[in-house]
């Protein structure tokens, strides 16, 4: 254990750089000194130390020990190696001047300084081409020399970089310094506007904007969360890909799901006293173990249906799974359906399907998981694949306004309680009837009082719309198609039709 100047003990590892004598460590190199060798009022002998440390080593040590300091802040960003001896001499002179110190006759030097940055060749012609204006070579030389650079003895436009400007590595870095001193405002603007055809990136941006508009119209607020998740969130992150050298405990792994960030937002709002949180996020996730990127849409609903009571209804109701289902149904997803499944940490879990393809999930957190956040009531979440929606939306076709009237017929039926709307819809539409335009569920009734003789059944009623784009349909044609659908429902699902 090492007792540092902040009064805390730190457990060091062989990877940590220390300043030590023959017996023990007296300081953590580039981070903080030790309590035993600290300067107090009775101190009479001082050994000044001036050094250059590798920035990556100091950064790693400070993060691993969770010990940020003024020294680590400076050393992990890199210091000028040429200032080491001059800084040591300046500190000695100040001690002698202010405290009447008696300096030692010799200065001990160990190690080797890093080499100066390599020389950089700059073309005056390229400088003019990049900036779009002509600057005289003499003016360029004067600007770079004022920054401490000097032309190489070999002549030409090769520049020697000072030790304190290790960020200058390429010719474009020098060009940036030139325009910074010359003045960006002196570069005239140029109108380069022209018509460009729409690209895939434009279409993707338009669809994402449309998704944001739909959800915002339903009262949801957009949030942006970190792509890196904390260590305590990894349990919900399902084998998230961990970073080898994380910057902090709050950012240690790549998020495999948007839910971790949304739940953190909920937790923060609940602790702040919010009673209504309806949020969504469009962002990228990283699928383990390969780290493949996917665009996802995450939705979270919790709290009262309204932030304040309505003047006509003083009682507020809580948001539930049906509100989440309504938000998903408002999105441009073809043949949307839900399928029940089981998931750990969730009291209610369903898969979201488009046709027969799973594109996401909608779930309600279990009571135990919700209690950890401290949010009373139901917490419902969903996550959908945005790329799938973008693929469907990219292919748009023009459709004329219908010129011929539609014919509607209703079908009412008694069905088993476990039979889903999606299964009924699939039987009605497959095989595809060319005259069937749409199917709409308009009535659902289930209750012990109305159907005592069949307690395990429910009553459903659908409106079927028929239309032909080229002519007006006759009553006989519609009756024939409608009869086929009724027969198919009875044969494949065993429903009881109600006349």
Could you give a quick summary of the protein structure above?
With 499 residues, the chain is of the alpha+beta class.
Please specify the SSE layout and strand pairing.
Elements (H helix, E strand, L loop, with lengths): L1 E2 L5 E2 L7 E3 L4 E4 L3 E2 L21 H11 L4 H6 L8 H16 L20 E2 L2 H8 L5 H10 L3 E2 L6 E3 L10 H12 L17 H18 L3 E2 L5 E2 L4 H4 L15 E2 L4 H13 L4 E12 L4 E12 L17 H9 L6 E6 L4 E9 L2 E9 L1 H7 L5 E7 H9 L12 E10 L4 H9 L6 E10 L11 E10 L8 H19 L2 E3 L1
Parallel strand pairs: 9-12
Antiparallel strand pairs: 1-2, 3-4, 4-5, 6-8, 7-8, 10-11, 12-13, 13-17, 14-15, 15-16, 16-17, 18-20, 18-21, 19-20
Helix pairs in contact: 7-12, 13-14
Would you kindly provide a written description of the structure presented here, covering whatever features stand out?
The chain has about 500 residues and is an alpha+beta fold. It folds into 4 domains: about 1-100, 3-Layer(bba) Sandwich (Phenylalanyl-tRNA Synthetase, Chain B, domain 3); about 120-185, Phenylalanyl-tRNA Synthetase, Chain B, domain 1; about 200-395, Bira Bifunctional Protein, Domain 2 (BirA Bifunctional Protein, domain 2, 2-Layer Sandwich), CATH 3.30.930.10; about 405-499, Alpha-Beta Plaits. Helix content is about 30%, strand content about 25%. It contains 14 helices and 21 strands. The strands form 6 sheets. Strands 9-12-13-17-16-15-14 form a 7-stranded mixed sheet, with helices on both faces. Strands 19-20-18-21 form a 4-stranded antiparallel sheet, covered by helices on one side. A 3-stranded antiparallel sheet has the order 3-4-5, with no helix packed on it. Strand 7 (about 150) and strand 8 form a beta hairpin. It starts with a strand and ends with a strand. About 20% of the residues are buried. The model has no long low-confidence stretch (mean pLDDT about 85).
């Amino acid at each position: 254990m090492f007792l540092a100047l902040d009064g805390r003990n730190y457990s060091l590892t062989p990877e940590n750089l220390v300043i030590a004598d023959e017996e023990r460590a007296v300081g953590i190199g580039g981070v903080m000194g030790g309590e035993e060798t600290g300067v107090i009022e009775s101190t009479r002998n001082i050994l000044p130390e001036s050094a250059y440390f590798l920035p990556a080593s100091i950064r790693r040590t400070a993060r691993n020990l969770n010990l940020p300091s003024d020294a680590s802040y400076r050393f992990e960003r890199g210091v000028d190696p040429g200032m080491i001896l001059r800084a040591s001499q300046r500190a000695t002179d100040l001690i002698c001047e202010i405290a009447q110190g008696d300096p030692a006759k010799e200065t001990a030097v160990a190690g080797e300084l890093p080499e100066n940055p390599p020389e950089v060749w700059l073309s005056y012609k390229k400088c003019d081409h990049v900036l779009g204006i002509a600057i005289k070579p003499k003016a360029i030389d004067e600007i770079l020399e004022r920054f401490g650079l000097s032309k190489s003895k070999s002549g030409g436009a090769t520049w020697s970089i000072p030790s304190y400007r290790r960020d200058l590595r390429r010719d474009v870095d020098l060009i940036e310094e030139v325009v910074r001193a010359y003045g960006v405002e002196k570069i005239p603007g140029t109108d380069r506007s022209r018509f460009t055809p729409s690209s895939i990136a434009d279409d993707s941006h338009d669809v994402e904007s449309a998704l944001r508009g739909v959800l915002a119209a339903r009262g949801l607020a957009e949030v942006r969360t970190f792509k890196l998740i904390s260590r305590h969130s990894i349990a919900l992150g399902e084998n998230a890909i961990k970073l080898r050298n994380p910057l902090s405990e709050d950012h240690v792994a790549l998020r495999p799901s948007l839910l971790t960030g949304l739940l953190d937002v909920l937790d923060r709002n609940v602790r702040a006293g919010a009673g209504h949180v309806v949020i969504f996020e469009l962002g990228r996730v990283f699928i383990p173990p390969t780290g493949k990127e996917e665009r996802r849409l995450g939705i979270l609903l919790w709290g009262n249906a309204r932030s304040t009571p309505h003047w006509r209804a003083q009682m507020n109701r809580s948001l539930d799974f049906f509100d989440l289902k309504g938000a998903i149904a408002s999105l441009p997803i073809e043949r949307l359906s839900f399928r029940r499944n089981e998931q750990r940490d969730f009291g209610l879990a369903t898969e979201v399907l488009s046709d027969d393809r799973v594109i996401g999930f909608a779930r309600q957190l279990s009571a135990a998981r919700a209690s950890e956040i401290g949010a009373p009531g139901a917490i419902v979440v969903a996550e959908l694949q945005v790329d799938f929606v973008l693929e469907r939306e990219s292919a748009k076709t023009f459709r004329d306004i219908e010129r011929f009237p539609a014919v509607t017929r209703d079908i009412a039926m008694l069905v088993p309680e476990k039979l889903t709307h999606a299964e009924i819809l699939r039987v009605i539409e497959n095989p595809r009837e060319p005259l069937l335009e749409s199917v709409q569920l308009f009535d659902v009734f289930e209750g012990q009082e109305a159907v005592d003789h069949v307690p395990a059944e429910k009553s459903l009623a659908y409106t079927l719309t028929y239309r032909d784009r080229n002519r007006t349909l006759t009553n006989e044609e519609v009756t024939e198609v409608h009869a086929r659908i009724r027969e198919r429902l009875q044969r494949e699902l065993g429903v009881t039709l109600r006349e």
